Amino acid sequence: MHRFVRPQLMLRDSKQPLLPRAGHLCTNHKSVVSSVRGYVVLPPTSDEEEKAMLHRMMRVDHAGEYGANRIYAGQMAVLGRTQISPLIQEMWDQEKQHLRKFNEILAENRVRPTLLLPLWNIAGFALGAGSALLGKEGAMACTVAVEESISEHYNSQIRTLMEKDPEKYTELLQLIKEFRDDEMEHHDTGLEHDAESVPGYQLMKAIIQVGCKAAIYISERL
Amino acid sequence: MIFGIKEKSIILTNFDVLFAIATNIHVRLKTGFVLQVAVQGTVSLQCSNVRRGFHRAALLRLASDSKSDTSVPPPSYHEVHTAGESSSSSAQGESSEDAQPNTSFQDQSGEHGEDYETEEQLQARILTAALEFVPQHGWTVEAIAAAAETLGLSSASTGMFNNGAGDLVLHFVAQCNAQLAETLAEQNNQVQLGQAEAKKTAEFLKDAVETRLRMLIPYIDTWPQAMSILLLPHNIPDSLKHLSTMVDDIWYYAGDRSTDVNWYTRRAALTGIYNTTELVMVQDSSPDFEETWAFLDNRIKDVVNMANTAKQVQATGEAVVQGLMGAAITLKNLTGMNQRR
User: Fold this and answer.
1) Is B209 contained in some domain?
2) Does the keyword Transit peptide apply (chain B) (predicted)?
């Protein structure tokens, strides 16, 4: 998507370089809104290594939410006119919200998005559509597998940040915890809706989780 | 350490005066000891000692001088010295980033107030001064040596720079990028305060690239040499980093907030524009580089055209797909395949 904004009004000390706020923020999403600070969620740091680590984390999280978005899109494309569609739509909307938040973080903190986004676009859609072709149970099984991987990933990020400095990263930790809770909710919803009853559930789950781990690994580096 | 020994020597001489010790050998031994330490401090061949010696010289220089530039720089560079010096002292050789309130301003006053200078600051000062000598000596170690001498240091202080001419060129590039970032931030500030009109993207890019390339004008005769230095294998990572930071800065202030593949395509396009325009500039002989700016204008128009065409193609493609879907549904209806059983 092409997003081009005119920087909005923000009074700042003229000595400091300005970081314009993204003018495209929609006001009805419940994520944390930046006020007069020049940064969003990520604490400002002058340590290059720490900055690189934070940028890497945000990059891979953004890629993850983007992929999850596409997976649900694929599922809706196949199961869009069945009984399960309101549920999938609801989960998809939550993922869209997560993605919006990460887009905001990336834009304001000038984090480079991962180069492989087009790949995750196609792969996510294919996975979503492919699993949905196995029926509603297949779609739920895919959801369970993916959400479990993502929750595990967020948990390890939370652990890393807590180990470093919980106070400095409070806002970031709060955000990741919130998103992790949402993903766990999706995971539980999937289980509730007969994910395990799909034939070859364990195999499917294992394959998808290996794929997710590989995707996370690559996105962190590329 | 030196101060301690000085104090000791004062105490010793006081003792000598007060008690008039008869043993001349004793006095000579003590003073000899002081001299020996002083000698060790400055004449030793070890690098660190030499550097400390230069620091002493630098401290003396700081105490006596007001500003280090002895010759008059081109007016546009006076700000560059302060901006570039302060920014390059915070991160050696890297152009300063945006949001970090770096220690540059403290360094500026710290230089005068505290009489202490880090090695990076000293290197930055020498390199900034060396730019004066580039038209004469080219982008070489000779320019750095000449600059060191004007600052009151020995020309052997070029030993501080492992990369020689590469350090000089990279310092200059970092300085220019920092100045560009500052200019863009100022303009942005003006727009946000409503004091200036926001420019259209194409015009903004053109102005930003022109501003940046104009910084090369004082050194345009020797710039091909600098470009070849930047292309040396061991300099490529640094020069690429500077280039990518600069392009990212320009797009950021142009208002780009994309987080998808456009992030890459836009920066790639601008990198291409910048590099080709730079090449045109070094062989341009028209008055005030008019041909260069015309070339730049055309390239930016090309990119904008391509972007518009891409958008049109996408829109057309979407419309076509919708048309095909409609046709498929119609067919399904006609053949009765759409009815549920």
Assistant:
1) yes
2) yes
Separation of alpha carbons B278 and B183, rounded Å: 20
Q: How many domains does chain B have?
A: 2
Quick check: A20 and B263 CB within 8 A? Answer: no
**ipTM (interface predicted TM):** 0.77
Q: What is the pTM of this model?
A: 0.69
Please give the residue of chain A at the shortest CA–CA distance from B267. A112
CB pairs under 8 A between A and B: 79
Residues B172 and B300 grouped into a single domain: yes
- Rounded Cα–Cα distance for residues B179 and B174 (Å): 9
Q: Are residues B199 and B315 in the same domain?
A: yes
* Of B99, B105, B259, Cβ closest to residue A62: B259
Range of the domain at B211: 163-325
State pLDDT tens for residues B234-292: 999 999 999 999 999 999 999 888 898 889 999 999 999 999 999 999 999 999 999 99
Q: Using the beta-carbon criterion (under 8 Å), do B259 and A39 form an inter-chain contact?
A: no
CB A139 within 8 A of CB A79: yes
Q: Which residues of B touch A (CB under 8 A)?
A: 90-91, 98-102, 105, 181-182, 185-186, 188-189, 191-194, 198, 201, 248, 252, 255-264, 311
